[in-house]
Amino acid sequence: MKFALSLVALASPAFAHTIFTTLWVNGVSQGALNGVRYPSYDGPVTDVTSNSIICNGDPNPLITPFSKTVIDVPAGATIQHEWHHTLTSQFGSDNADPIDPGHLGPVIVYLAKVPDATQTSVTGLGWFKIAEWGLENGCGVWGVTQLWNLKGKFPAVIPSCIPSGNYFLRAEIIALHPASTYPGAQFYMECAQINVVGGGSVSPPTVSFPGAYHGSDPGITIDIYYPPVTNYTVPGPAVFTCPGSDGSSTSSSTSTTTSTTTSSSTKSTTTSTTSTTSTTTSSTTKSTSSTTTSTTTSSASGATQTKYGQCGGQGYTGPTVCASGSTCKSSSPYYSQCL
Ligand SMILES: [Cu+2]
């Protein structure tokens, strides 16, 4: 089994990598390659001790001079980081866009406070994690698969309590298909230049890059094919949440699904005369009352969210009712999704 799956991995496109190209703020694109530091080549970083693990770089040449744009982002805003296979790929016309679907692994977002988001240097900063999607327990969906479901645009919420000012937003995908030995795991990341406005006064605990990741981390050196992964530990620190907003108070998402099998009857009648058997089976299954209730502080009523769309989470104001065939499931205090 392991051998067969490894062949599948080897057969996937050798250079089907990915780049975070575009930041969205509260549903509005900030422009392709605007306010983002990106390389000319979409390759991975594999050395977690190199400075390229911070905001990409050697062996992938970063395009300079960097964008002069610093993107204003309200504290509490929902951002989306949009990924593409190459700088020119588009979802739907490139079967490895936003990324080769075999590049399974987590999707992660960090922030680092910085004096000036247009400064060249990215070293010596303190980073904190604001979002992660590893392998969701229960549904077994990798972050990368989820990225596909979302057509390359992954959401995160800027914590409302962090101080206003300039930050680097580091969006990251770790592809684990070659991660059974180290170096192997492929780290893809770009940094966006943002300015948080209307923030608070809580300074999150931070980690360093390089430093936060080690080749021995169970989420970095791992065979994702065998034995089957049931629990995946995303590398780096825990996701920071503002004090008092653990998700249970400001945003509660409950999902209630009731499937009732009201009548299941099997009737077998066998009539034997000489050597003839006649069997009649009648099976009736009736599923009723599939109810999804999602409560958010402010929500649009009447609208229905499509399958795989967002249906809840802190700060979310869109539709909370899922299209038939899907139910609203909470994956974090920040994100619930129609699955
Ligand atoms: Cu690749």
TrEMBL record:
What GO molecular function terms would the record report? cellulase activity; cellulose binding; metal ion binding; monooxygenase activity
Q: Where in the cell is it found?
A: Secreted
Coiled coil ranges (UniProt) are: none
Q: Which InterPro entries match?
A: AA9, AA9_LPMO, CBD, CBD_sf
Q: Which domain of life is it from?
A: Eukaryota
For this record, the Gene Ontology CC terms, alphabetical, are:
extracellular region
The record's comment about this protein's domains reads:
Has a modular structure: an endo-beta-1,4-glucanase catalytic module at the N-terminus, a linker rich in serines and threonines, and a C-terminal carbohydrate-binding module (CBM).
State the protein's purpose.
Answer: Lytic polysaccharide monooxygenase (LMPO) that depolymerizes crystalline and amorphous polysaccharides via the oxidation of scissile alpha- or beta-(1-4)-glycosidic bonds, yielding C1 and/or C4 oxidation products. Catalysis by LPMOs requires the reduction of the active-site copper from Cu(II) to Cu(I) by a reducing agent and H(2)O(2) or O(2) as a cosubstrate.
This chain belongs to the protein called AA9 family lytic polysaccharide monooxygenase
Organism (species): Sistotremastrum niveocremeum HHB9708
